[in-house]
Amino acid sequence: MTSAGLPLADAAADAFTRHSIGAARRQLAREFRQQGIETPELDARIIVGHVLGLDHTALTTQSSRVLTAEEGGVIAELSARRLAREPVARILGRKEFWGLPLKINAETLLPRPDTETVVEAALAALHCDNRKSRELRIVDLGTGSGALLLALLSELPGAHGIGTDVSFAALRCARDNAAALGLSARASFAACDYGAALKGPADVLVSNPPYVARGDIAGLQAEVRDFDPRRALDGGPDGLDGYRAIASDVRRLLARDGVLVLELGQGQLGAVTSIFAATGLEPVAAQHDLSGITRAVVMRAPHAAATFPVRKKALGLWAKND
Ligand SMILES: C[S@@+](CC[C@H](N)C(=O)[O-])C[C@H]1O[C@@H](n2cnc3c(N)ncnc32)[C@H](O)[C@@H]1O
C-alpha cells in the first residue's frame, strides 16, 4: 500500500503507465537522488532493465516505448524496496564475483569486490610456489554464497574443495551456484562451526569470517546493517571471534606447506596475526583493496615461509594502513 492508501500497483499505474521507459528511468533516478542513494541513475537503469528484460542498449533504443500498467506496477514495487535501502543486487537476487554470476539469498552476505583480494592473494601465493596446476585441496570457512571457493575452483582446474557454513540456506545457495557454474563435481559443502567437522589437510584455507565489532553494527550503512545477515557481520565484542575460532583448528586443517588466506576488517592485521602467532603460522604477504586498506593476509608455517620468494617485498606492502 502507498501512503495514499492505494494498492501499490494502482499507484504505479498512475505513476508510470503514461510514462515512456526513458521518463520512468528519469523519475526513478530523481527519487533515488533525492533520498541520498549513491548511484541513482545506475540503480534506476538496472531496475527498469530488470523488469523489462532489456539490456542497456535496448533500454536506450526503446526509450520512447510507453510502459504497460503491469510493468509500471512492478517497477514501482522494486523502486520502493530500493528506497527502503535494499541493495539492487538483493532485489535482483544475484551478484557478480570474480566475473562469476552468483545467486544470493537473505542468508548470504552480498559478495564484495574487496573479497576478491583474498582470491588474488591465494592465487599469488600458489603461483609463487608453482602449484597452480597441481591437484589442490581448498577449504573455505564461512562460505556464504560460495564466492571464495567457487572463484578459486574456477581458476584452478586441478583443485577440489569444501565450503562450510552454519546457515543451511547459505549452503543451499552455494551448492546451487556450484551447479550453475559447472563446478559441482569439485565442490562440496558442509554445515558446521567453521572447520569443526573437517579432517584436513587443506593446501589452501581461505575465510572471510564475520569481522565487524558488535558495537559497530548499528552504525553501518543501512544497506549493510538492515540487509546483510547478522551472522555474516557480527564478529563478537571486538570483531575477532571468527579468527579465534579458525585459529583453534588451523594446524589440524592446514597441510604443512599449506597457505591460509584471510580477509581482514580495516586495521585488524596486527590483532589477527597475533592470534595466529600462537598457532605457529607467520604472515608472509598481504593484499590491499582499491581503497588502500590491507584487506587480505597470507599466512603459513615458518619452514614454508622461508621458501616463499616474495616474502620481504610483500611485507613492505603492509605499512600503509596498519
Ligand atoms: C562475512 S560472511 C562471508 C561469506 C562469503 N565467504 C563471502 O566472502 O562472500 C561470513 C560467513 O560466515 C558464516 N558463519 C558465521 N559464523 C559461522 C560459524 N561459526 N561457522 C561457520 N560459518 C559461520 C556466515 O553465515 C557467513 O556466511
Characterise the protein shown here.
There is one protein chain. The protein is α/β, with parallel strands linked by helices and 322 residues long. 42% of the residues lie in helices and 17% in strands. The chain has 16 helices and 9 strands. The chain has helices spanning 8-16, 21-34, 40-52, 56-61, 69-83, 88-92, 116-128, 147-155, 168-180, 222-225, 230-233, 241-247, 250-253, 269-277, 302-305, 311-316, and strands spanning 94-97, 100-103, 136-141, 159-165, 187-191, 202-207, 254-263, 282-288, 294-300. The strands form 2 sheets. Strands 5-4-3-6-7-9-8 form a 7-stranded mixed sheet, with helices on both faces. Helix 9 links the parallel strand 4 (159-165) and strand 5. Helix 1 (8-16) crosses helix 5 (69-83), helix 2 (21-34) packs across helix 3 (40-52) and helix 2 (21-34) packs parallel to helix 5. The radius of gyration is 22 Å and the shape is elongated. The model is unreliable at 1-9 and 305-322 (pLDDT under 50). S-adenosylmethionine (SAM) binds at residues 109, 111, 115, 142-145, 147-148, 164-167, 170, 193-194, 208-210, 231-232. S-adenosylmethionine is lined by residues 109, 111, 115, 142-145, 147-148, 164-167, 170, 193-194, 208-210, 231-232.
